[in-house]
Design a protein that fits this description.
The protein has 579 residues and is an all-alpha fold. Helices cover 66% and strands 2% of the residues.
Length: 579
């Protein structure tokens, strides 16, 4: 951290009583920001537009309480009883209506909730109940069915592949090509899925993902039945490994597409436009569902591996995936039925890649134009440093629960129970962070809270690297300290995931949020792609330390970049987030 950036100044509590809130992603916990009911202003959104489409970004996301500079409110103050109130003028409603046609307009929450950042205003003029509560519960259940099998498989395949050869290379190559596919196709995914009927697309992607699991399992099972490769390069050149690479990439791309549909479309419409509290609650619940599934996946994996061989674990994982698939498909249809069929149609626009006759050149030109447009919008966003800090955090592929860490621990003789405890406790830390983040934002302000999360993660990962480099990692006690520091760092990681994405969402107009969000996923995949390339070059587990050092250095660079941006705020930043 440069000397010109005083850390106490950055992390000090805001001098004024105002606390700046952007649009919280799905990890946020809205309960801390709840207010007492009062006068309400409601809009019949579904009568204004046939599609009811509210374009937003969620990730790894969503919308929560939003704050702005105060535009749109005709008056604000406190009643005699001391309860805060916000008096809205008719100009606000006219501004909201204009947002239906203007993709350059800022978030409607930034227009309609300018005074939420002042004390804890609480009129409750926006609904805290989802527009379709029963359908929202069906969405939670569908995500539970899909995410549980996904996380279980994400723990199973790296462990199985790691047992095929004493090298990081097979797992690193699989990770490299997976990230490459997401990086190349990321800017196209959001645009393509928006042009297709939502429910059939959602169901089809679930089937494709399960089929990819089965193909991958078949290839790994085949690898265990044939003579082992003497070298890592020989293993990579075998036909079954090429099929495994393709199926793993398809699996990941399907997962990203399902996430975009569920988190950036379904949850927005089911919560109802103009209902930030309901949307924040839905985002928080989805976040916890995902983290609970991660905890369950790690625990089930540890239980299965401690009592069975890898092949049996793979077969049981496939059985669970096949069992969950019809449940996932059924719940997707139930969600639509309970929501009066609002997802029966696409967004009434034609995909630029759909032509009456197959024209490969035209498809390539349109796809290239979409990618260029996505990158242009991403680079020109006013909160680019916050997004770049998130991308730098994504460089950390070694000091986090994942394929490389699983491979490293297995090759160091760690028991399945320790593996499961490591993954499960990391997910539990993420759940804890969703409860702590609102208090942190209230105490420090949203921007300073983001800096605190990055600094905490950077410090703990730096300590973990020092423990590893001390050479005592071979001892059980030192290994547990190493893993405990990584687990603790997940608090800071999840806190910045919540806050950083909130900052990015608040700083971008609604019409561009989905494109910028998809492009950010691609950029994050590029970061992970680079680190996987380093892991491929490292090859052997004995060189894991070099990958770990680079991972910790990337997080430190993210903290430096973010704090430097915060120390010299621009006028635009001051408008979006008064310091």
């Amino acid at each position: 951290m440069p000397a010109s950036i005083p850390i106490p100044k950055i992390l000090s509590r805001p001098s004024s009583s105002s606390t700046s809130f952007g649009r919280l992603p799905r990890h946020a916990v809205p309960a801390a920001f709840a207010w007492n009911p009062g006068p309400r202003v409601s809009c019949a959104w579904h009568s204004l537009t046939s599609s009811g489409r509210f374009t937003g970004s969620c990730t790894s996301s969503g919308t929560s309480l939003a704050g702005a500079s105060g535009e749109g409110a005709s008056a604000g103050g406190y009643e005699d009883s001391g309860l805060p109130f916000v008096k809205l003028s008719s100009d606000i409603l006219r501004a909201e209506l204009s947002l239906l046609k203007d993709e350059e307009a800022p978030s409607p929450l930034l227009v309609t909730l300018p005074s939420l950042q002042k004390a804890n205003r609480g009129d409750g003029h926006l609904e805290s109940t989802p527009a379709y509560p029963a359908s929202m519960n069906a969405l939670y259940a569908a995500c539970l069915a899909g995410n549980a099998t996904e996380h279980l498989w994400n723990f199973t395949w790296p462990a199985a592949v790691a047992m095929l050869h004493q090298s990081l290379l097979p797992v690193a190559v699989l990770g490299f090509f997976t990230k490459l596919v997401v990086f190349v196709a990321g800017p196209l995914v959001g645009d393509l899925v928006s042009s297709l009927p939502r429910i059939p697309t959602y169901r089809s992607l679930a089937v494709i993902q399960t089929a990819a699991h089965l193909v991958s399992a078949a290839m790994i099972t085949h690898a265990f039945t044939i003579p082992r490769a003497s070298t890592a390069l020989e293993l990579l050149l075998r036909p079954w490994f090429a099929v495994l690479v393709a199926s793993t990439a398809i699996d990941r791309l399907s997962c990203v597409s399902i996430g975009i549909i569920a988190e950036r479309d379904f949850v927005l419409q089911l919560a109802g436009e103009g209902r930030p509290v309901a949307l924040a609650q839905a985002n928080a619940t989805l976040s916890r569902v995902d983290l609970i599934c991660e905890t369950a996946g790690a625990s089930i994996f540890a239980f299965l591996l401690s009592r069975n061989d890898p092949l049996t674990c793979i077969k049981l994982s496939c059985l669970i995936s096949l069992t969950a698939l019809p449940v996932h498909i059924f719940l997707g249809g139930m969600m639509n039925r309970l929501a009066d069929g609002i997802f029966d149609h696409s967004e009434h626009r034609r995909s630029p890649y759909a032509t009456s006759t197959f024209d490969f050149r035209r498809i390539v030109v349109d796809a290239s134009a979409t990618i260029r447009h996505g990158w242009k919008e991403y680079v020109s966003q006013p909160v680019l440093p916050a997004s770049l800090a998130y991308v730098l955090v994504c460089f950390n592929v070694a000091l986090a629960p994942g394929a490389l860490m699983t491979t490293f621990l297995i090759h160091n003789g760690v028991s399945p129970l320790v593996l499961g405890a490591f993954g499960g406790s990391s997910a539990l830390m993420g759940i804890l962070a969703t409860f702590m983040t609102p208090s942190l934002v209230k105490e420090l302000g949203i921007l300073r809270a983001g800096a605190a999360g990055l600094l905490a993660q950077s410090t703990l990962l730096g300590a973990a690297v020092l423990v590893y480099l001390s050479g005592s990692i071979s001892r059980q006690g030192a290994l547990l300290v190493f893993l405990s520091l990584i687990v603790a760092s997940r608090l800071g990681h999840m806190a910045y995931s919540v806050i950083g994405l909130q900052v990015v969402q608040t700083g971008n107009p609604i019409g561009k949020a989905k494109l910028i969000g998809a492009t950010e996923i691609a950029v994050a995949s590029l970061a992970e792609l680079g680190m996987m390339a380093v892991a491929v070059a490292a090859k052997d587990v004995s060189r894991f330390g070099a990958v770990a050092v680079l991972s910790a250095a990337a997080v430190a660079a993210a903290a430096w970049l973010y704090c430097g941006w915060l120390a010299k705020p621009t006028n635009k930043l001051k408008t979006l987030f008064p310091l």
